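Dear Dr. K.,

Following up on our conversation at the group meeting, I've run the structure prediction for tRNA glutamyl-Q(34) synthetase GluQRS from Marinomonas primoryensis. I'm pasting the input sequence below exactly as I used it, so you can double-check it against your construct before we proceed with anything downstream. Let me know if the numbering doesn't match what you have in your notebook.
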Amino acid sequence: MSTPYRGRFAPSPTGPLHFGSLVSALASYLDAKKHHGKWIIRIEDVDGTRCKTSFSKQITDTLNSYHLFSDETVRVQSQHTEMYEQLLSVLRKQQAIFPCNCTRQSLAQHNGGHPFVCESSLDQPHSWRLKTSLAAYQCQDSIQGTLRFTDDLKNNCPVLKRKDGYFSYQLAVVIDDHQQNITHLVRGADLIDTTAQQLHLYHLFGWTPPSICHIPLITNHSGDKISKQNHAKPIQDNNLSTLLRALHYLKIDLESPLSIAEALSLAIEAWDPNKLKGMKHLSLEEQDLHFI
Ligand SMILES: [Zn+2]
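The predicted structure tokens came back this morning:
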């Protein structure tokens, strides 16, 4: 028997849920339910400087108003920092990471990137960065096809723990997905760029990565992702027409369902990731501009 499907949606509570996030939440939910699997909400609040508890509640309330309920207790990342610390020390013993005292100014000549292993002192305030690697990875993405990552780890040393003590999304997301036995990730195409780092962390920990696929990103007229940074508006709770418009971007067009519950169950039947094959972006249509 194959492993039971476990999927998740993992929003950061830096603002209320917007239209683009609803599309992502739905894609992960529909894929999980189509496979008779579990769908779990996780609050990614490792960045204590940007996340607020009030947004966590607001986001889960909005999801629930669309009948998107977590099949297990909602996991909150900030409650697991001890585990992140423990696993960071595993990487430290492997000498896969290094301390870094570099400042924003000192990295300005590298466009803010960090393409080398620096000589830094543990006595000064320091972050922990992942060492560069020549390792190449690939993944079989059921929507985007084969993704090959050859140079992704050669010229960048991403931060795993910041100078201010907060852990990075990159580290936390890998540890949590593994700890929660997540088998399938369905997420936005903007995360393709960080996939190699995550596969590398799985490799260093000796864990098997989940199956990963990337849905097209909903973009505005300038081609930018609809995001909180771009001031996307919060969506209304419990609004059938918003749900139908979100499903439209997943290539599901339903004929006048009577309720959110009915729309969701029809959408589970209709969900077919093949209809999104190879698409990395979808422009927001004229009638949906009020969402941004
Ligand atoms: Zn450095």
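Two things stood out to me. The chain has a mean pLDDT of 94. The longest helix spans residues 19-34.

Best regards,
J.T.
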